[in-house]
From TrEMBL:
Species the sequence originates in: Amycolatopsis dendrobii
Keywords: Disulfide bond, Membrane, Oxidoreductase, Redox-active center, Signal, Transmembrane, Transmembrane helix
Source organism phylogeny: Bacteria, Bacillati, Actinomycetota, Actinomycetes, Pseudonocardiales
Protein name from the UniProt record: Thioredoxin domain-containing protein
Domain Thioredoxin-like fold: 75-225
Membrane-spanning segments: 21-41
Length: 248
């Protein structure tokens, strides 16, 4: 009888696994399932910021505040702002005003609230703007807040952001009087759940759109990624994006 050939197959030649080995495998499998479940749960509840174009219903829901409106609405600019943000004020002075002037009647310009936690007066200012909007004076209050920025937003040194809520509120009241607003209604609206909801919605929508700081601008849902080192360069870049959108 011929001798039985040696098994040279490295798979079938392998002996059965020990109890310890099976235990190790079981632990690894359970760990993989648990980690996979955690990742799936987190991915569902905390979606990654969207890539490309952001939907209009996120950026510009009904009732959003507008600075300018164009018939047909072919091109919409949405800016997420923090009223106490120094860079937002610089954008207002050096970018936004010139864009509004030069593209009047051609674009719809929308602003959304995105107050940052390091600016203690950002929310009170947003409430003042929203309360003015409820009396049809949003644009005018917006201009007051940024046009008179140093008197309420900056500390006495003129450099650091202010934490003086009383001084800021006094300025907001002065703006309301200058705009002919009903002051009692202005105060009631600023303190209302409706105004707080609008501010919270801006923050939530900004988060969905991938906004992490201010100002953040979108043109027809496409985020502007500033590449210049000056405000003039940013304005030129924004103009290029607007011209491209208008030409389509």
């Amino acid at each position: 009888m011929a001798a039985k050939k040696a098994n040279r197959n490295p798979v079938t030649k392998r002996k059965g696994l020990s109890a310890n080995a099976w235990t190790t495998i079981a632990v690894v499998v359970v760990a993989v399932l648990v980690i996979g479940g955690v990742l799936l749960f987190n991915r569902k509840d905390n979606p990654a910021p969207p890539q490309g174009t952001v939907a209009a219903e996120i950026l510009n829901p009904p009732g959003s505040n507008t600075l300018t409106t164009a018939s047909g609405g072919a091109v919409t600019v949405v800016e997420f702002i923090d009223y106490q943000c120094p860079v937002c004020e610089e954008y207002y002075q050096n970018v936004t005003k010139s864009i509004e002037h030069d593209y009047a009647g051609k674009i719809t310009f929308v602003t959304r609230n995105f107050p940052l936690p390091m600016h203690p007066l950002a929310v009170p200012a947003a409430k003042a703007a929203e309360a003015a909007a409820m009396q049809g004076k949003y644009r005018e209050m917006y201009d007051k807040l940024y046009g008179d920025y140093p008197t309420w937003a900056l500390a006495a040194d003129g450099k650091n952001v202010s934490e003086d809520t009383a001084r800021a509120q006094a300025r907001f009241d002065a703006y309301a009087k200058e705009l002919g607003l009903d002051l009692a209604k202005f105060h009631a609206d600023a303190a209302s759940p409706e105004v707080q909801k609008r501010i919270d919605q801006g923050k939530a929508d900004g988060g969905k759109a991938g906004v992490t700081g201010t100002p953040t601008i979108f043109v027809n849902g496409t985020k502007l990624e500033p590449s210049g080192n000056t405000f003039a360069a940013v304005a030129q870049q924004l103009r290029g994006q607007l011209d491209k959108a208008l030409a389509q």
